[in-house]
Amino acid sequence: MVERDRLIAALEDATHASSIHNSQPWRFRLVEGGVAVHLDPTVTPRTVDPVGRWALASIGAVVANLELALTSRTGRAVVTEITLGDSIPEAADLAGGAAYGEGPLAVITLGEAAETTTAMTAARLHGAIKERHTTRGPLLGGPPTEEEWAELQAAVAWAPGIQATPASEPLVRSLLSLTARAEDARQEDEDYLEEIQNWVENEAPSGTGIPRGAIGAPDAEGHVPIRDFTQTPMGSSGDGEAVFFEDPPALLVLHAASDTPVDQLRAGYAMQRAMLEATALGLGIGVLGQALEEPDSRAAVDGAAEESFGAPVVVHQILRLGHPAGTITYAATPRRPVTDLILD
Ligand SMILES: Cc1cc2nc3c(=O)[nH]c(=O)nc-3n(C[C@H](O)[C@H](O)[C@H](O)COP(=O)(O)O)c2cc1C
C-alpha cells in the first residue's frame, strides 16, 4: 500500500505536464492500487480543438508524467490501461473533447518493484518534469545531433503505435508553409482570437493560461510561424520586438498509422516524453500544431509527410527542436493546486 501523501506528491508532479493553452483538463481519482485519469471538457478550449484531439493529447501528456513520477517516488513499475474507446464517438460535440468527459480515460496501477533500467529512466525524466517548458523563442545553438535524435525517437517509442521522424529539408519547408497558412487563417477567425485572449494572462481562469512572458516574440524573418498569442479581436496586444530565429528549424514529426482517440491520447504521451527527454538533453522544444486543426490543412500535412516518407501516415504533432544559443530564461506557467483536481 503506497501512502496517500506519496500519491499526491506524484499527482502534483504530473500537473506540470504540457496542455493545450495550459488548460490542464485532467482530473484524478484515487482508486484501488493506483490512479484513474479523467478529462474535464468543461475547461478545454474548443475553437482551437474542433475534434478534441488536443484535449486527449493533454491527457496523454499528464499520463506520461504521472507514470514517471509514480515510479520515481515509489520505486515500483506501473501498468497503464487506456480505458478510452477505440473509435471516434458519433456525438455531435467533439470540440474540446466534450464527447470524452464520461468515465476515466486511463487507469494507472502500481505493480512490482521496477527493474533497474526502468527506475533509472524514471528518475532521470522525473527530474526534468519541473524544468520542462514549451520553447517559443529562437534555438540558434544548432539542431539536435544524430545521438540526440535517436534518444528523442526512443522516448517517443514508449507510446505504442506512435513514431517520430526528423523532417528532411523539403518536408520542413512544406510543413512551415502549411503552418504559416493555417496561422494566417486563424488570425482572420474572431472566435479563435477571442478564445486565445481568454487564455492569455489575466483573462484565463486562476492557475491556468499562458502568461505574457511565455508567449514569445515573432520571427523577424517570418520563417518560424509560432502560434501568435498576442492578437485579440481588437487588434495586436503584442509589444515584443521580433527576433531572429534559426533557419531552417529542425522539426520532428510524430505520426501513426491511424487517427483513433487512443492514437490521439498516445501522441500527447509521446510528445510529453519527447519534451522531457529534450529537457534532460539540454534542448529547447516547441510545438507547431496549427496546421493539424482543420481537415483540409491536416490532409495537406499528411500528404507532404507521405511524399517524404514514401508511405501513408497520420501526422499527430509537429515539434521544433534545437539547442539554445545561451541559457533560456522561461517565465513559469501557472498550475492549479492538485487538491482542486482530485475527484471524490
Ligand atoms: C496538445 C497540445 C498542443 C499544443 N499546441 C501548441 C502550439 O501550437 N503552439 C504553442 O506555442 N504551444 C502549444 N502547446 C504548448 C502549451 O501551450 C503549453 O504546454 C502550456 O501553455 C503550458 O506551458 P509549458 O509547456 O511551458 O508548461 C501545446 C500543448 C499541447 C499539450
UniProtKB/TrEMBL annotation:
GO molecular function: oxidoreductase activity
Coiled-coil boundaries: 175-202
Domain Nitroreductase: 129-292
Keywords associated with the record: Coiled coil
Name of a matching Pfam family: Nitroreductase
Highest taxon listed in the record's lineage: Bacteria
InterPro entries: Nitroreductase (IPR029479), Nitroreductase-like (IPR000415), Nitroreductase/BluB (IPR050627)
Gene3D superfamilies: NADH Oxidase
Signal peptide region: none
Name recorded for this polypeptide: Nitroreductase
Highest classification ranks of the organism: Bacteria, Bacillati, Actinomycetota, Actinomycetes, Micrococcales
